[in-house]
């Protein structure tokens, strides 16, 4: 959420950000409501001043034993006027706050201008990218391989819940659990995050706090009776742990890591990238969340990306880091890197699959969730900067792992760093 004063003083700058992010421009309505709000506040203050003056005069007349009934009636009339203004003011402020929730964050100056994913900029890549032609045997894609090995069953998942809800079996389930435990251990013991095991459902205030509501309501699973939402990512419950709190400067940076299942309706997203794990409604993810001092947030963004990269390097899975352009940047992010893994048997997007997004939201989420900090006992509270990144999502990571580690015999070699978690070295 942007500061209303900033919008008022920089409407053209905000409009430009809205255009570049391909969002709907509501700035005219916001400025109109803001003008109405300020006029109502002015009227309210004038009436308060009049009522105070009348109260003083009434008290003076009563002390002198004179009749004050006319002034008392005038004061009551002024009070009725003020009630009406306050009711109008509440409605205007509610409408204004609701509209402000639809204004996206401003892209950072280092974000390239572009229309979509085709304009994202590759900043680096790591590992040996072996395409299908580089193998001396016919590669199987992750779905065919997983079904042949008996470790994945999308058909029975569809029977139980519907399309897009996978089932892991046997060594597939063990491998999934191993990936989660490996990533959590790495982020806690080496990268210094505090592990959190949060609820898998959140309330509306939490979804608003991180920017999923109101804009992306159609993509969320909503439990109407209890007015709770299944988490689309651990970012939501973990960031909101500190909602409406004022942290001390000694608590910063606060670094959390958490595993949750993630639930997304993905309304309107089905198409050529929907085979197997490429597009699912439920998947597992280890998330990284940071609350930091504003002046340090972009250094922390680079460190966050490095923490994610180390996971892939230890797994020896080739990847590339993409800096997203303005047209591909999310509603809430000021800057974002996507980390894409390479899956040699996957035709969609030429084998490059997004497995992590690492974003700096600056104060956008903190303002919505009211997360602040104090530099010292005398200073005023300031909004923290929030960051998060997938560290990582296992669904597309599983695709890359199965396809890169398959053998001519149709087996899958388990990466060495996972052996102590799986208890086996090969899936056959």
Describe this structure in words.
- There is one protein chain.
- The protein has 428 residues and is α+β, with helices and mostly antiparallel strands.
- It has 2 domains: 4-100, Serine-tRNA synthetase, tRNA binding domain (Helix Hairpins, Orthogonal Bundle), CATH 1.10.287.40; 117-427, BirA Bifunctional Protein, domain 2.
- The protein is 40% helix and 19% strand.
- The chain has 13 helices and 16 strands.
- The protein has helices at residues 4-9, 11-20, 27-63, 69-100, 142-149, 154-160, 171-189, 204-209, 235-239, 297-315, 364-369, 394-404, 419-422, and strands at residues 121-126, 194-196, 201-203, 222-223, 228-230, 245-248, 254-263, 282-292, 319-323, 335-342, 352-360, 371-374, 382-383, 385-393, 412-413, 426-427.
- The chain has an 8-stranded mixed β-sheet.
- A hairpin with a 4-residue loop joins strand 4 and strand 5.
- The longest helix is centred in the first third of the chain and has 37 residues, at 27-63.
């Amino acid at each position: 959420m942007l500061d209303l004063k900033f919008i008022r003083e920089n409407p053209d700058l905000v409009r430009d950000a809205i255009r570049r992010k391909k969002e709907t421009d509501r700035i005219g309505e916001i400025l109109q409501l803001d003008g109405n709000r300020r006029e109502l506040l002015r009227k309210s203050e004038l009436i308060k001043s009049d009522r105070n003056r009348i109260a003083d005069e009434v008290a003076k007349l009563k002390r002198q034993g004179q009749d004050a009934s006319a002034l008392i009636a005038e004061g009551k009339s002024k009070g009725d006027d003020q009630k009406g203004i306050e009711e109008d003011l509440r409605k205007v402020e509610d409408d204004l706050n609701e509209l402000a929730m639809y204004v996206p964050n401003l892209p950072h100056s280092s974000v390239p201008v572009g229309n979509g994913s085709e304009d994202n900029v590759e900043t680096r890549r790591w590992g040996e990218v072996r395409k299908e032609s580089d193998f001396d045997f016919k590669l199987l894609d992750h779905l065919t391989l997983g079904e042949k090995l008996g470790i994945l069953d999308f058909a029975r998942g569809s029977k139980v819940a519907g399309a897009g809800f996978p089932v892991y079996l046997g060594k597939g389930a063990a491998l999934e659990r191993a990936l989660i435990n490996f990533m959590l251990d790495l982020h806690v013991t080496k990268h210094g995050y505090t592990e959190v095991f949060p609820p898998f459902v959140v309330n509306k205030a939490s979804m608003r706090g991180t920017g999923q509501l109101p804009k992306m309501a159609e993509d969320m699973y909503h439990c109407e009776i209890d007015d709770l939402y299944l988490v689309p990512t651990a970012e939501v419950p973990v960031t909101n742990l500190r909602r409406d709190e004022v942290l001390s400067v000694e608590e910063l940076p606060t670094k959390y890591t958490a595993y949750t299942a993630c639930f997304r309706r993905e309304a309107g997203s089905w198409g050529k990238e929907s085979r197997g794990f490429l597009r699912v409604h439920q998947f597992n993810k280890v998330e990284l969340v940071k609350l930091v001092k504003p002046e340090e947030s972009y250094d922390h963004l680079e460190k966050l990306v490095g923490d994610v990269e180390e996971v892939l390097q230890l797994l020896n899975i080739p990847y590339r880091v993409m800096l997203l352009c303005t047209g591909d940047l999310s509603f809430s992010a000021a800057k974002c890197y996507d980390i894409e893994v390479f899956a040699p048997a996957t035709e969609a997007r030429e084998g490059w699959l997004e497995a992590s997004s690492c974003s700096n939201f600056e104060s956008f989420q903190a303002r919505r969730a009211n997360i602040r900090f104090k530099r010292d006992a005398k200073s005023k509270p300031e909004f923290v900067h929030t960051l998060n990144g997938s560290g990582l999502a296992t669904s597309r990571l599983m695709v890359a792992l199965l396809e890169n580690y398959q053998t001519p015999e149709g087996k899958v070699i388990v990466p060495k760093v996972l052996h102590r978690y799986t208890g086996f070295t090969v899936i056959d």
